[in-house]
From TrEMBL:
It is a peripheral membrane protein. This is ABC transporter ATP-binding protein. GO terms for cellular component: plasma membrane. It comes from the Bacteria. GO terms for molecular function: ATP binding; ATP hydrolysis activity. Residues 246-281 are annotated as: Disordered. Gene3D superfamilies: P-loop containing nucleotide triphosphate hydrolases (3.40.50.300). Pfam families: ABC_tran. PROSITE patterns: ABC_TRANSPORTER_2. Keywords: Antibiotic resistance, ATP-binding, Nucleotide-binding, Transport. Its main location: membrane. One of its GO terms (biological process) is response to antibiotic. It comes from Nonomuraea rhodomycinica. InterPro entries: AAA+_ATPase, ABC_transporter-like_ATP-bd, ABC_transporter_ATP-binding, P-loop_NTPase.
Length: 281
């Protein structure tokens, strides 16, 4: 079976810095895949290149066997993207945004209206459907962004930190929607820092560190009998704390009367005579 996503030695430099250093990302079709890695590992840069938002300096990216940069229109027609720092049409209401995105995708009006209504209901945005997107909260923006990315029923869905800022009730709704989506054969790949979530949702995981893939495969194999969090820390190197980490000053308070340890005592407030204004005197 063709992989949903496959990259070959994907490379991106920002000046002298190599952000993505020859990445061979593989995501089998129908997977619920997680892309994890420490801050600055290159996840967003990789996803941006795979979704045609950022041109690579080297290597190739394929989605469903199509070259992302050579077959741009075909690839864009079959993917949905919730990018980092999502920019939305702020002066449209949530419903208008979905109708607009649906029409841009070439979906017949009646179908767009039906799908938009269903997505708004499932995402619990019905009450906010008439509100301008500029007035949406962070979590509401994620949800309307995800609805827009799902509207055309893409074969592969790319989500950069989809659960960030989303409340637990909405997160479980999103989870259900995504589970249903992958159960019917479509593919989700999402980046996240929340290992518990990745462990719970994903059947496939790719771990990045320093611009490279350091482990990749079925989640059980990558975990190797440990929790994903433990496996992750082993793969990317544990926390940088210890005797020589500095911060010896942090938490150490100077001794003496200037450093009260008990509850702070409120100074009594002495009522002041009202000030007499010059012209009243
Ligand atoms: N536009 C840019 N200009 C310069 N450097 C950049 C740019 N975008 C990313 N980088 C650098 O490339 C590296 C990879 O960044 P990227 O955003 O892909 O990491 P990430 O894994 O998504 O991180 P995070 O988990 O913190 O979101 C980082 O060192 C970052 O500073």
């Amino acid at each position: 079976m063709t992989d949903a996503v496959r990259t070959h030695s994907l490379l991106k430099r920002y000046g002298p810095q190599v952000a993505v250093a020859g990445v061979d990302l593989v995501v089998p079709a129908g997977s619920f895949a997680g892309l994890v890695g420490p801050n600055g590992a290159g996840k967003t840069t990789t996803l941006s290149m795979v979704t045609g938002l950022l041109r690579p300096d080297g290597g190739r990216a394929e989605v469903g066997g199509l070259d992302v940069w050579r077959d741009q229109l075909q690839v864009k027609a079959c993917i949905g993207v919730l990018p980092e720092g999502l920019r939305l049409f702020e002066r449209l209401s949530g419903r208008e945004l979905l109708l607009y995105c649906g029409r841009l995708r070439g979906i017949p009006r009646a179908d767009v209206e039906r799908r938009a209504g269903e997505l708004l209901r499932v995402m619990d945005l019905e009450d906010a459907a008439g509100k301008l997107v500029v007035d949406y909260s962070t979590g509401m923006r994620k949800k309307i962004g995800l609805a827009a990315a799902l509207l055309h029923n893409p074969a592969v869905l790319f989500l950069d930190e989809p659960f960030e800022g989303v409340d637990p009730v909405s997160a479980s709704t999103l989870t259900e929607v995504l589970r249903r989506y992958t159960a019917s054969g479509s593919t989700v790949i999402f980046s996240s820092h929340v290992m518990d979530l990745v462990e719970r949702l994903c059947d496939w995981v790719s771990v990045m560190s320093g611009g490279r893939i350091v482990a990749q495969g079925p989640i059980g194999e990558v975990r190797g009998g440990h929790s994903l969090n433990e496996a992750f820390l082993r793969l990317v190197g544990g926390p940088r704390t210890g005797g020589d980490a500095g911060l010896s000053w942090l938490g150490a308070q100077p001794a003496g009367p200037a450093a009260p340890r008990g509850p702070a005592v409120q100074e009594p407030v002495v009522p002041q005579e009202p000030a007499v204004r010059q012209e009243e005197a």
